[in-house]
Every structure is written in structure tokens, then in C-alpha cells.
Write a structure and sequence with these properties.
147 residues; mainly beta; Immunoglobulin-like; 1 helix; 9 strands
């Protein structure tokens, strides 16, 4: 027994939604909310006892083309990767995977971070941002005594 194209499309929509729900927890890591706003920028977020690290791959992007800013509890990485493709009639692309143009990535920083001591290092297309943790982290829940 076959299924109609309409039934197939309905099943695809349901599967797509289920897949999104399955991967949703992975978008909030270590208490961070990361939003891929524009472009191709991919990041890793990891930590140790003293620091939180954000590492971004930026192949082909010059150091002066990247801007890192902090404000309102968010860290933003943005810039532009210059690139030109041969658009003449003599060239026929068989595969296009490289991205060019503007990029922007925003990451929510937890309150346990010392934003006054953030450092960034850029070497060989890798941007490493180090955010020291506050020595005494605030408790999430605390009982307040009533006088």
C-alpha cells in the first residue's frame, strides 16, 4: 500500500518538529543561551574551575574584521569575511560550501562571570574568549530571615 504525497508531507512536518524538540536542550549549554543571528559563525563553549571559554572558528577572516563586545549580559562576536566568487559565464560551480559576508553571534553570559576581566585572543583563524568566573558565585536560592 502506498501513501499519498500529501500524507508524506504531513509526516515530514511532524518529524521536523520532533527533531527540533529533540535538539533544543543542546542550544542551552552551561546556562548559556546562544543565538546564531547571521552568517556562518560556529562556536564551542566550555569551562574549567576558574574560567568560561568561548572558541570560534573564523577561517579566512582577518583579525581587524572581527569585533567582540559585551553589554546587558551578552557577549557579541561580529564581523565580515570578504570573498569573491567568479560569476562569469565561463565558470560553473559544482559545489559551494564556503560562506562569505557578515556574521554575528550572540551569547548570554551567566551572572557568575566577571565581565570586567574578559580577554580575547585571535590566532590562525581561531578566536578564544576567556571569561573569568567570579570567585564567590552567587547562590541561586537563598532563604531570607524575617525580623
Amino acid at each position: 500500500m502506498g501513501s499519498s504525497p500529501k500524507k508524506g508531507k504531513e509526516g515530514m512536518g511532524r518529524t521536523e518538529g520532533e527533531t527540533s524538540e529533540m535538539f533544543e536542550p543542546f542550544f542551552t549549554v552551561f546556562g548559556f543561551e546562544s543565538i546564531k543571528e547571521e552568517g556562518f559563525l560556529v562556536i564551542d563553549i566550555f569551562e574549567n574551575a576558574e574560567n568560561i571559554f568561548i572558541e570560534a572558528e573564523l577561517p579566512g577572516v582577518g583579525r581587524n574584521s572581527v569585533k567582540v563586545s559585551i553589554g546587558e549580559g551578552r557577549l557579541v562576536i561580529e564581523g565580515e569575511k570578504a570573498g569573491v566568487r567568479d560569476e562569469s559565464e565561463n565558470v560553473k560551480y559544482l559545489c559551494i560550501e564556503r560562506s562569505f559576508g557578515k556574521f554575528r553571534r550572540s551569547v548570554e553570559i551567566p551572572t557568575a562571570a566577571d565581565m570586567s576581566k574578559v580577554r580575547a585572543r585571535y590566532r590562525e583563524g581561531i578566536l578564544l574568549i576567556t571569561i573569568p568566573k567570579v570567585k564567590e558565585q552567587r547562590r541561586k536560592n537563598m532563604r531570607v530571615e524575617i525580623e
